[in-house]
Design goal:
Order of helices and strands: HHHH
Number of helices: 4
Distance between the termini: 22 Å
Largest sheet: none
Low-confidence stretches: none
Length: 56
């Protein structure tokens, strides 16, 4: 994980965009989940681990 002071990130990319990097955002695919769709990898860590296994 990279670390950078908030002020520098805000200066480089702007206050509004920096909030996504510094605080994150919660995105829920409601339309996909509504009819009962189940993702193979609902968490990012598991999906990325799978990609690493495929490449190796």
């Amino acid at each position: 994980m990279w670390r950078a002071p908030r002020a520098i990130v805000e200066t480089l990319i702007g206050r509004e965009r920096s909030s996504i990097l510094l605080e994150g955002q919660r995105v829920v695919p409601r339309r996909a989940l509504a009819p009962g769709y189940a993702f193979k990898f609902p968490a990012l860590d598991a999906a990325l681990s799978n990609l690493v296994k495929i490449k190796a």
